[in-house]
Every structure is written in structure tokens, then in C-alpha cells.
Amino acid sequence: MSGAFRRRVAVAVTAASALTTTQAVAHAAPAPASAKPAAVVSLGDSYISGEAGRWRGNALENSGDKWGTDLATRCDASGCTTDPQLVYGNTHTSTNMCHRSTSAEIVSAAIPDVTAINLACSGATTSDVRNGDPERHQPNQVERLRAKTADHHVKLVVLSIGGNDLRFGDIIADCVQGYLTSYRCGPKWDSTIAGQLDQVREDVGATVKAIKEVLDAAQGAGTYQFVLQSYPSPMPAAADFRIPESGPRWSEGGCPVWDSDANWARDELVPTIAAQLEQVAAHHDVRFLDLRDAFDGREVCAAGSRQATAANNAANPLPGTVAEWVRWVVTGYSSQGDRQESMHPNHYGQRALGTCLRLMHEKTTGDFACHNTPGAGPGRMTLAALDGSLDH
């Protein structure tokens, strides 16, 4: 408080003795942002909301605790009951399928001395993040962020977005349909995606800009880290499948795609999306976290991983050192869970992404790619510095 201000207050108190200490405090400047509780915030779509975080690997068993994979199931002597809200909370209802799970990336990051706030929602597009969509029960995430800044100082904001703008879910569904009806999905989608890339970069950029404007206005530029992340590949390249193309990929593996489509998704689709997001990050001066190879060897049907068996249960689950980190395609062969969980990071995958984010936060500056450690669990992720350009 300046000397001039103190003199003015003193004169006012002398002239009008009714001015109280309480009134003086009420007219003082707002508390600095650093006095607010610190928070880290995630925004965006299903890959960061925690979709599929209910599943600790994959298993063919449909009843009971699904051989220890279903974290939403509780069993006792009288049998088993399943309640997805044990994992997704009130974001698993008929009017809200955001699926913000207890293992969502922002929670699993376990960044010390902060409150983890998950504003992401399954199915969100760039427009949904900025504007919301009441018809689909999508919240306006930017406005929810603005509200959070009233009583939190945001140290880190992380965004996962763009996949739904490119209809990533439709692409996966079409590739599955292609496997069942003998056509290849890659050639069909290549030109469609190429024609959308400019618009997606623009829309992701507008979303990044809107988020920065909220935080800059609330607490000032340079007071937070902003991370834009890409997507991990949910399937391996064809050579790394443990189930051959002619094998039970549909009924047992939950990965019903042709080898050529698997290679297209792994080598073209996921890197192309990553390249667009890296460009946006560079243009808007935010950090970039490349996740495309984070699940190498841990993808659904990967040769280096396996499914749970009857030997596993809630007390003896398949560990993250050998389990798949991606939820398989939910099909008629399995009544487990929701179809929207298909091809998303499961409980182990979400924890792995959380480790990547914590490591990114600790670095404070720079762009990085995240990788797992072969033979290790989701807590043993590593970062490698990026040189500023991806291969595609």
C-alpha cells in the first residue's frame, strides 16, 4: 500500500469516524492469484476425460468381475453388482456420458500440492470445448474454466482435441465394418481426412486461443504451462499383432481390422493428426506432448501384451506390466461396458498418460514425446525431446 493511499485513508477516518477496519479491507485490492489454491486442469475429449478408465485390461469373461478387469464391479458371497458410477461418478448417466474416470490423466498425473480438475468430456469437438452443445449434453468447457479461475490459480492446463472433428470414432467403426465385409477403410478415408486438415488446425487453434484468453485475463500471461497433446495409437502395426489377420481378431482379440488398415492407422492416420497438432502448438506458442508411440507393445492385440484369464480376479488382477493398455472394440461377443469405450486408453493407459503429463510438467519448458519402458508398468514412462517437426 502506497504512502499516498495511507494518507488518504487517514484523512477519511478523521473526517468520518464511521469507517471501520472491516470496510477498509472490503475495499482493498483483490488477493493475488498466488494466494489461491493451485490447480491443474484438463480440457477436451474422451482421450483425456478418462474414457475406458473403468477397465484394468481386457478379458473374455462377461459375468462376475470380468476376471478382475472391471473396476466398476463389487463382489461378495451373494454375487457381483456393477455400477459404472463407482469409476465415472455422475458423468455416467443418461444425460451425461462424459466418462470422467477416477484414473483420468489429470488425476493419475498426481502432481503434488495442486487440485486436479477434469473438465473434459467424451465426444467433445473443438466447438464443444468453446461453446458447449446442450443437445448432446456437452458442457462449455472454456466457461467452466473461467469459473474455476475465480478460486483457483491454474498452474497447468492440458488439452486433447481434434480427433472428433476428424471423426476418429467413425473411422474406427468403418475399419471394423471393413473387416467384416472385406473392404479396406484406409483408402476410403485418406482423401476425406486430407480435405479436413486445414479446418481442423484452424479450429484447434481457435480453441487454444480461447483458453489462453481466459487464463491470461484471470491471472496473467506466463503464469501457467499450456500443453497440447496428441493421441496414442490404439493398435500396433500389422507385424506386431499377436493374432494373425485370419485369426480370431473379432471374437477373442477385440481388434477386428485388416493388416493394411492397421498399418494405415498406425503409420499414417495417427502421425498425421499429431503433425497437425504440433503445428498448432508451435503457432500459438504452447507446449506439445506427442503421445503417438506411448503405447508401443501395449496396444490392443499387441504381441507384447495379453488379456486377463480365469486365473485373475479383483484380488489378483493382470498387472500393467503385461496387460493391454487400450480397451478393445466392444462387440456382440462381449457385453462388457459401453461401445463408446472402444479403442480408448483403459485404466492402465490413463495412468501411463498421467505419468507422461507429470514428467512434462516437471520439465516446465520444451516439447517432448512420451514412451513406455518395455516390461515395465504405467509408472515407468519416459520423455524424449522433439526437434520441432514430425515425420508427417
Describe this structure in words.
The chain is of the alpha/beta class and 392 residues long. 35% of the residues lie in helices and 11% in strands. The protein is built from 13 helices and 9 strands. It has a 7-stranded mixed β-sheet with strand order 4-1-5-6-7-8-9, sandwiched between helices. It has a two-stranded antiparallel sheet with strand order 2-3. The model is unreliable at 1-31 (pLDDT under 50).
Which descriptors apply to this entry?
392 residues, alpha/beta, seven-stranded mixed β-sheet
Summarize the SSE layout with pairings.
Elements (H helix, E strand, L loop, with lengths): L2 H13 L5 H6 L11 E7 L1 H4 L23 E4 L2 E4 L2 H4 L16 H4 L6 E4 L7 H6 L9 H8 L4 E8 L7 H14 L4 H9 L2 H23 L5 E5 L19 H5 L5 H25 L3 E4 L56 H17 L4 E4 L10 E4 L7
Parallel strand pairs: 1-4, 1-5, 5-6, 6-7, 7-8
Antiparallel strand pairs: 2-3, 8-9
The proportion of residues in beta strands is 5-15%
Mean pLDDT: 90
Please compute the radius of gyration using only Cα atoms.
24 Å
Structural class: alpha/beta
Major β-sheet annotation: 7 strands, mixed
Unreliable stretches (pLDDT < 50, length at least 5) are 1-31
Distance between the first and last residues' Cα = 55 Å
Widest sheet: strand ordering: 4-1-5-6-7-8-9
Q: Quick one: how many beta strands?
A: 9
Helix count equals 13
Order of helices and strands: HHEHEEHHEHHEHHHEHHEHEE
Structural shape: globular
Helicity, as a percent range = 25-40%
